[in-house]
Write a structure and sequence with these properties.
The complex is a heterodimer of chains A (252) and B (209).
Chain A lengths: L4 E9 L2 E3 L13 H11 L4 E5 L4 H17 L4 E4 L5 H9 L4 E4 L1 H5 L2 H10 L4 E10 L4 E6 L4 E6 H11 L3 E6 L11 H10 L4 E4 L5 H8 L6 E4 L1 H4 L5 H10 L6
Parallel strand pairs in A: 1-3, 1-11, 3-4, 4-5, 5-6, 6-9, 9-10, 10-11
Antiparallel strand pairs in A: 1-2, 6-7, 7-8
Chain B lengths: L1 E4 L6 H10 L4 E4 L2 H5 L3 E4 L5 H10 L2 H8 L5 E4 L1 H4 L4 E2 L5 E2 L7 E4 L15 E6 L1 E2 L14 E6 L1 E4 L6 E7 L1 E9 L2 E4 L7 H17 L1
Parallel strand pairs in B: 1-2, 1-3, 3-4, 4-14, 5-7
Antiparallel strand pairs in B: 5-6, 7-11, 8-10, 9-12, 12-13, 13-14
The chains are: A alpha/beta (252), B alpha/beta (209).
Chain lengths: 252, 209
């Protein structure tokens, strides 16, 4: 049976992992390779590296990070952040990333989804959607640029469009839930999961193991991503997986 | 020496790194003259079947591979496995290498049992069922999770080539083989400890040939 996936997300800036690094007892906790191997050892099913570098130098460093990770890590990983061109996509995939995640650039240039999917197959192209509930219209709006910029796109419609353009997976982050640690946004996750035929990764709001159970059952997500609760060791990938197994969820 | 067939489709870096971790010498090439001297080949691949066959034909690699597998082992991975079959319906109907009997079809996306829609691609970790536990590729392995990512799968009436299968609304051939020609639908280089052990089994098989 296909397992539900648990995906830790690591923020990388100028080639180093930031956020939470001081809480994990590693020789060099800022080293992406060491952290990747740490989560791999915990039973992570995949990893996401989010490049939050502000400079071009930092971006270029990401290709070296990807190479170093791919040399050691024997599970799939996705790279997102600052990918604007087919050349960026090619460089990261050739360096050993399994998938790239497109967010703002996909909204600004939807053709990039298609170009990437045509070249490497749709399984490599993840469309990341940052969504926030809009009480006025009772709908979920898409935001870009790290949540700074509101667009007029409806999250569900954009997810459908992204898939029709060639996205092989949707990474849905709820801006309302992100950082709240009160659980994933189940309503929107379920709606998008039902609206598209590709896997959906729930993101934003994980606080405890049972939140993951809800994401998979009520939210109908195929995978769930979390950052801070794993980095700050509030729970571990292994603990979450043990809990889910006890609840009868298919888990590796 | 192992040859990785580089015909321009796929992410060879992860595979080459997996071989490095196993202390395996390898050459990455699209020249049959270079690949001919190897003891066994790996045919990787992601992307579209039609494009892959066009490139293999263009580079003269189809004919080369057909000669090569008369004597020496080959392991196809993901799309590389699908290419071993007779034809694929991906895009327009395209002829494959035809080393194994069967055709490549798209997941329908609708369960034949419940009539419900299901997700395509088949993406993530799925369990294997061993059909031929005594296959050299499964030597000393127990059924485990492997990492799949594909929208098409091989349909075959020849159960003798099914070494392991996975269940994703259809019976998905996960490890196939006939004689010294093998294929895995999943990515052994991305399937953790299990995948690494299976790759090593292939390398050991090549050494014994």
């Amino acid at each position: 049976m296909l397992a539900k996936r648990i995906i830790p997300c690591l923020d990388v800036k100028d080639g180093r992992v930031v956020k939470g690094k001081q809480f994990i007892q590693l020789r060099d906790a800022g080293d992406p390779v060491e952290l990747a191997m740490y989560y791999n050892g915990q039973g992570a099913d995949e990893l996401v590296f989010l490049d939050i570098s502000a400079s071009n130098e930092g971006r270029n460093t990401m290709v070296d990070v990807v190479k170093a990770v791919a040399a050691k890590l024997a599970i799939p990983f996705t790279v997102g952040g600052g990918i604007h061109s087919l050349e960026n996509i090619k460089a990261l995939l050739r360096a050993g990333a399994d998938k790239v995640s497109l967010n703002s650039s996909a909204v600004e240039n939807p053709g990039l989804i298609t170009a990437g999917a045509d070249f490497f197959g749709c399984q490599c192209i993840v469309c990341a959607i940052d969504a926030k509930f809009d009480p006025e219209t009772s709908s979920y709006r898409v935001y870009t640029h790290g949540g700074q910029k509101q667009t007029d796109l409806d999250a569900i419609e954009w997810a459908k469009k992204a898939v029709s353009l060639g996205a092989g997976e949707i990474l849905l982050t709820s801006m309302d839930q992100d950082g709240e640690k009160s659980g994933f946004e189940l309503n929107l996750t379920r709606k998008i999961s039902e609206a598209v035929d590709v896997p959906v990764i729930a993101s934003g709001g994980a606080g405890k193991a049972s939140d993951f159970f809800d994401a998979f059952s009520a939210g109908k997500a195929d995978a769930a991503l979390a950052a801070s609760i794993f980095h700050y060791k509030e729970t571990s990938v292994a603990q979450v997986k043990t809990y889910l197994k006890q609840k009868g969820v298919a888990i590796r | 020496m192992i040859g990785i067939v580089d015909y321009g489709m796929g992410n060879l870096y992860s595979l080459s790194q997996a071989l490095k971790r196993l202390d395996q010498d390898f050459v990455i090439s699209d020249h049959s003259s270079e690949l001919a001297g190897t003891d066994g080949l790996i045919l990787p691949g992601v992307g579209a079947f039609k494009d892959a066959m066009a490139l293999l034909n263009e580079k003269g690699l189809s004919a080369f591979l057909t000669r090569y597998v008369q004597e020496k082992p080959l392991l196809g991975i993901c799309l590389g496995m699908q290419l071993l079959f007779e034809e694929s319906e991906e895009g327009s109907l395209t002829k494959g290498l035809a080393f194994l009997s069967g055709r490549v079809a798209r997941f329908s996306g609708i369960s034949q049992v419940t009539g419900e829609r299901y997700k395509v691609p088949h993406m993530g970790w799925n369990t294997l069922e061993f059909k031929q536990p005594d296959s050299p590729l499964l030597n000393a392995l127990e059924p485990d999770y492997a990492y799949f990512v594909h929208s098409y799968y091989a349909e075959t009436k020849d159960s003798s080539i099914l070494i392991a299968t996975a269940d994703y609304h259809e019976q998905v051939p996960a490890v196939v083989g006939s004689g010294h020609i093998f294929g895995t639908q999943f990515h052994p280089e991305k399937s953790g400890v299990f995948g690494q052990a299976l790759l090593k089994n292939y390398l050991d098989f090549v050494k014994r040939m």
